[in-house]
Amino acid sequence: METLSPGYWQEQNLELGTLAPLEEAMSSTVWSSPDMLASQDSQPWTSDETVVAGGTVVLKCQVKDHEDSSLQWSNPAQQTLYFGEKRALRDNRIQLVRSTPHELSISISNVALADEGEYTCSIFTMPVRTAKSLVTVLGEPTRIQEDPNGKTFTVSSSVTFQVTREDDGADIVCSVNHESLKGADRSTAQRIEVLYTPTAKIRPDPPHPREGQKLLLHCEGRGNPAPQQYLWEKEGSVPPLKMTQESALIFPFLNKSDSGTYGCTATSNMGSYKAYYTLNVNDPSPVPSSSSTYHAIIGGIVAFIVFLLLVLLIFLGHYLIRHKGTYLTHEAKGSDDAPDADTAIINAEGGQSGGDDKKEYFI
């Protein structure tokens, strides 16, 4: 490590801790005004806090109008710490300082880097209102050594924290400041590599396979190091289907007998993980597409219009036939009373039958 004057560690892209000069710990508490957070009296407000590792931090949340509701504190993992005066998380480091309808204050002792993050104060009104408090944890040099000349010092600092797979590839930055640097920081970065067991999931291509199609089952493994071997199995089938460095299982021509549950075991030097996929081979009939659905809708509209035109033509023809029948009835008036066909013809031409006059009408 480069020999520099008193400095600090700063962590990037991690939720575990940010270390800064000790001088900042004494005067870095910044209170936010309730008027800045919300205009409503029921909006809670709190403050950002900075604490030295191993020390105690107090989180205070206040509200002007509680609307008969209690305040609640939760940690960066969204675990409830206190709801009113009731403890929710079993951590003896967290203690209740003050609980009133207008204030909820708690303390966290023996603070570690893992405690750094954004804490949330909530009040369960309608709607629920929240305020955030960012807690920054500072570290201090672990070793100071005076050089033989008595004029320079070597300051060493170390940091220890638990890592997860999400921390793989994160940068840890060690920074120092000194009056000789005239306000500029000197820093160096170290990218950490986290080894972890693999995970896997199976993705079918195409997503909805049908009988007769070609199917690829992709076993997507993730880990550090990356999985080097994939073992494919089918439940109820012995021996295993395939052991290969390739992650895909290929079905050139699907049929009903391929249906079943398939397992893929992804293996690396850190361990193994098994994923499952249930394959149901559907009938080869095509799946209706959006374009065919659109054409079906258009066809239905056209058929409906044709049906309306046919109905209109039928009514029009019926109307014309009725008017033609009325004309013939008036022209042959008198034939209704004729005893026989000859008399009907005579009557239609203006003759008489039985002494009754018959009249002819022209329309």
UniProtKB/TrEMBL annotation:
It is found in: Cell junction; Cell membrane. This is Cell adhesion molecule 3. Keywords: Calcium, Cell adhesion, Cell junction, Cell membrane, Disulfide bond, Glycoprotein, Immunoglobulin domain, Membrane, Phosphoprotein, Repeat, Signal, Transmembrane, Transmembrane helix. The chain crosses the membrane at residues 294-321. Belongs to the nectin family. GO terms for cellular component: anchoring junction; presynaptic membrane. Residues 34-123, 198-280 form the Ig-like domain. The lineage of its organism: Eukaryota, Metazoa, Chordata, Craniata, Vertebrata. The keyword Acetylation does not apply. CDD domains: IgV_1_Necl-1. One of its GO terms (biological process) is homophilic cell adhesion via plasma membrane adhesion molecules. It comes from Sousa chinensis (Indo-pacific humpbacked dolphin). Its main location: other. Homodimer. Can form trans-heterodimers with NECTIN3. Interacts with EPB41L1, DLG3, PALS2 and CASK. Involved in cell-cell adhesion. Has both calcium-independent homophilic cell-cell adhesion activity and calcium-independent heterophilic cell-cell adhesion activity with IGSF4, NECTIN1 and NECTIN3. Interaction with EPB41L1 may regulate structure or function of cell-cell junctions. Residues 332-363 are annotated as: Disordered. It comes from the Eukaryota. It is a single-pass type I membrane protein.
